[in-house]
Amino acid sequence: MGVLVPGSSTWFDTLPASLAAMLLLFVPGAVALFLLGLRPLAALAVAPVVSTGLVAATGVLLPLVDIRWGVGPLLVATAVLWLVCAGLRALLQPDPTSDRTRGAGIDVSRYALGAVLLAFVVVLVSVLPEQGSPESFPQNPDTVFHLADVQWMLRNGTISSLQAGQFQIPSWSGFYPAAFHGLTATVSLLTGASAPVASTAFVLVVVGVVWPLGCVVLALTVLGNRPGVALATGLTSVAFGAYPYLLMGYGVLWPLVLGMALVPASLAVVAGLVDGPTGHPYVVAGRGRCALLLVVAVGALALAHPNALLTFGLLAGLALGQWVVTTAWGLRTTRRGLAVGLVVGSLVAAALAVGAVVVLRSPSMFDIGRLGPGLSADRVWSYVLLFAADGVAVLPVLAALVGLGCVAVALRHRNAAWCVVALGVSLTFLWFNIAVDDRSVRALTWPWYNDTPRIQAIAVLPAVLIASAALLWIADLVIAVLRRSLPAHGLREHEGWASGAAVLVLGLVTLVHVSAHQQVLRPYFHPTAARSWVSDGELRALRELSTSLPDDAVVAANPWNGATYLYVVSGRRLLVPTEKTNYPGDVALLSLRLRDVGTDSAVCAAAARHHVEWAITGGQPAHPVTAKILSAYRGVDGIRSSSAWRPVRTEGPYTLYRRSSCAGLSAAAGGP
């Protein structure tokens, strides 16, 4: 289960996996939240946060009581969650937000769901032509880990974040945010889809449904409970290249794709905690329920990806900061001491947070990447102000909308001022990351690995809300003009419908950037030969070679030549599972000197300890890789000239070898 058979899946075959992903992300959480007393739209929007937390937390707990992950534990955990939520509803006071929202105007649920459907179509139109096949995956470092770890989880019956790293080294201990891998493995478990196909289906559901729905509900809490808000946000949520498209292609960040998709709904919970904006807001739930959901959201984000949790903390802190300032301003004459205390307390909290980031930095994360500016000054400004994802595919129409939206927020949605501040902060981070990137800058950017795609993704959510405010403002101006010009047509009585239609028509202009999103994805799904980590032909060759290997084989291969994808197409173990796992000791020794296994007893003993009797050579190194890096694997690449290894089979660019002798070790003692 989970093993890829190249050429066996079509897009039609992904429907069961897509349906399983939808059910897994929405059903456990939505039913639980409905039992807790939330309205259907709010329950649906926050459901993926709860479902992710449920699955990931259960996955951590099960190994502690020696229970394998499977359908049974999933059903039991879901049933327990539902019972707990039903019990909590009996203990909590009735939620007053339902009546307040119902009295705020027309029900926006149908518009919200329609906007999500439209967003999903835009994602499919942008992604499917570039991806080509559900079996395709981004050609990027670490993609093999994300795919293989899903497969390893299925094989070993665990989705625990405390065990996920054992795919790379069995003795590993620590924490790795594995919610993405656990949920994808569960999709594969439920449908039998291979790890790549399950990952494709899961990612499409996350970016095409979970993310837009969360953005829409957050916009309703910030910009008002109107059909136009829902429709505008549905379109703008999938109109930026940095998220979701860049992170979809930049496959090293698939877990962050999930984490970022949970941030909007989590922020909607924070908005409910401070009672939303003035006017007629869509409030997710009352303060008591939002407090409970906030705890769940923090846990789910931590298990999904720390960068998502940090992004949530930054945006939530700015939103809460505006609430503090607004509250303090209202109390300035009646309770001046309390007002001053609120402001001072919030400033101290912000200073402590920044100080913690500066002081508690991780040396390994701080030093990632080469110091210094990455682009010339003129390109930096284009990158930042025109929302060019990873430096390509500028978005001038969206940039203009965002600029206009800042004015709209200042004039019409002052409760959303934190969005403008958040956009300014994130774009400032981005500029310094690209244009300066010295040690002072890294004191703040290290939690995002000083990585431009991660930092650029922070700006997308506030930009989505601001662009939606612009579309809504333009639509309202159009309706106002029409109302004065065509009073006899009853436009006033149908203004809500007319405003929504105007927003929809205006929002369609964002589709002009679909080709730009495809441009962002193209290098990852259609790389040059030098930048390809493994081609379709190489995958088929590895699959054929695997039929000559026993199930328990351990295979040595140069991970830069694509052969580590042997695990994805067969489940056979690799001595070096990824390009980052040439660990000191036996593994490094064998990589460097495996060709000497017939003449060097130390190499032979290491091979015996790790059961290395098979090896694969051939393939083209992925770019960029240096001769120094490749030299660390010369012991594997050189076995073709060693008498201790005999060729078994050749397929495509690869040749499979089996060990024929081992210095100081007889065949009876463990040789082949």
Give structural notes.
The chain has helices at residues 15-36, 40-61, 71-91, 97-102, 109-131, 143-156, 179-191, 195-223, 227-236, 241-249, 254-273, 287-304, 306-330, 336-359, 363-366, 377-385, 396-412, 417-435, 439-445, 452-458, 460-485, 495-507, 514-525, 536-546, 566-570, 586-593, 601-609, 627-631, 634-637; strands at residues 554-557, 573-574, 612-618, 645-651, 654-659. It has 672 residues and is mainly α. A hairpin with a 2-residue loop joins strand 4 and strand 5. It is globular, with a radius of gyration of 27 Å. 52% of the residues are buried. The model is unreliable at 101-105 and 667-672 (pLDDT under 50).
Task: List the SSEs and their pairings.
Elements: H1 15-36, H2 40-61, H3 71-91, H4 97-102, H5 109-131, H6 143-156, H7 179-191, H8 195-223, H9 227-236, H10 241-249, H11 254-273, H12 287-304, H13 306-330, H14 336-359, H15 363-366, H16 377-385, H17 396-412, H18 417-435, H19 439-445, H20 452-458, H21 460-485, H22 495-507, H23 514-525, H24 536-546, E1 554-557, H25 566-570, E2 573-574, H26 586-593, H27 601-609, E3 612-618, H28 627-631, H29 634-637, E4 645-651, E5 654-659
Parallel strand pairs: 1-2, 1-3
Antiparallel strand pairs: 3-5, 4-5
Helix pairs in contact: 1-2, 1-3, 1-7, 1-8, 2-8, 2-11, 2-12, 5-8, 5-9, 5-23, 6-7, 7-8, 8-9, 8-11, 8-21, 9-21, 9-22, 10-20, 10-23, 11-12, 11-13, 12-13, 13-14, 13-18, 16-18, 17-21, 18-20, 18-21, 21-22
